Recover the amino acids of this structure.
């Protein structure tokens, strides 16, 4: 008999959708062992279908993590995310129990959209996480686009938006006194560099349209002032966050999670003050976003 809630289309792994919007939990596979071609293919298929996949109880070494991550694209560096000591392309999201500053990643965003080619995918593993608190929320950028009216979609498809990292490690972060655990040598000037992406992009894998604006990196619509842009951008940020587009991931040590950085946005839930939290991550490159 078929297990309750299972996606029956997969033969070599067990895939359980998390919500009606996106996300699936995968069982029946051990990532510390060599995957069969069929398993690897089905994991990638589940990733494309659900945009966020989690695989619980996977105690990967950094090398095993990087090898698994290669299924989702070539490894890339990011200028601002601290590295795990001893590695060039293996990063950490680390927060000490005694930190009191704003939790990084607390606004809805896609990773690093200030880059010309933001990451295609991120593979993250919980190394040492609190027993509760510190979940990560995901939202579907496909649904955020698809649920808009046809007339509004047409207007948005004519717009591009300017992105930069000013609020993360540029001038704005400096003015606001934001402490961000960026790496030595990452300059404020780097944070001011601007790049332009279409507001509505076509996902290179699925061919589906998705929204690409976020509160962390988007500054304004291209050719508009920040003041002119604010009303419409705020509307889109509220729309993106609607609960029916979301899933919520509760981390356990050794949960491995892969997210599609084009098809989704995410935010950390800052409810773990006073607790240590450490996750390791790899970042995987893809083509420049295009309309
Ligand atoms: C991130 O925003 O990239 C990290 C998310 C998290 O810490 O949960």
């Amino acid at each position: 008999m078929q297990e309750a809630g299972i996606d029956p289309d997969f033969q070599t792994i067990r895939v359980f959708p998390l919500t009606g919007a996106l996300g699936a939990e995968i069982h029946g596979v051990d990532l510390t062992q060599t995957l069969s071609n069929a398993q690897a293919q089905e994991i990638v298929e589940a990733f494309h279908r659900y945009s966020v996949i989690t695989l619980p109880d996977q105690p990967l070494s950094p090398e095993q993590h990087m090898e698994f991550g290669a299924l989702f694209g070539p490894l890339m560096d990011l200028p601002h995310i601290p590295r795990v000591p001893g590695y060039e392309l293996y990063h950490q999201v680390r927060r000490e129990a005694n930190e009191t500053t704003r939790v990084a990643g607390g606004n809805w965003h896609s990773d690093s959209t200030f880059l010309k080619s933001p990451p295609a995918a991120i593979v993250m593993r919980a190394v040492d996480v609190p027993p509760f608190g510190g979940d990560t929320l995901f939202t579907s950028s496909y649904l955020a686009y698809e649920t808009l009216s046809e007339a509004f979609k047409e207007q948005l498809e004519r717009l591009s938006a300017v992105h930069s990292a000013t609020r993360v490690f540029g001038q704005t972060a400096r003015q606001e006194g934001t402490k961000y655990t960026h790496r030595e040598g990452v300059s404020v000037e780097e944070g001011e560099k601007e790049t332009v992406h279409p507001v509505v992009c076509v996902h290179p894998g699925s061919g589906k349209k998705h929204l690409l604006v976020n509160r962390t990196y988007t500054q304004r619509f291209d050719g508009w002032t920040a003041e002119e842009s604010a009303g419409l951008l705020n509307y889109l940020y509220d729309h993106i966050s609607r609960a029916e587009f979301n899933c919520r991931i509760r981390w356990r040590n050794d949960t491995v999670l892969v997210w599609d950085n084009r098809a989704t946005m995410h935010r950390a839930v800052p409810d773990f003050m006073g607790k240590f939290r450490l996750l390791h991550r790899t970042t995987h490159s893809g083509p420049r976003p295009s309309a």
Summary: The first strand starts at residue 14 and ends at 17. Residues 14-284 form a domain with the Double-stranded beta-helix fold (CATH 3.60.130.10). The two ends are 44 Å apart (CA to CA). The chain has one domain: 14-284.
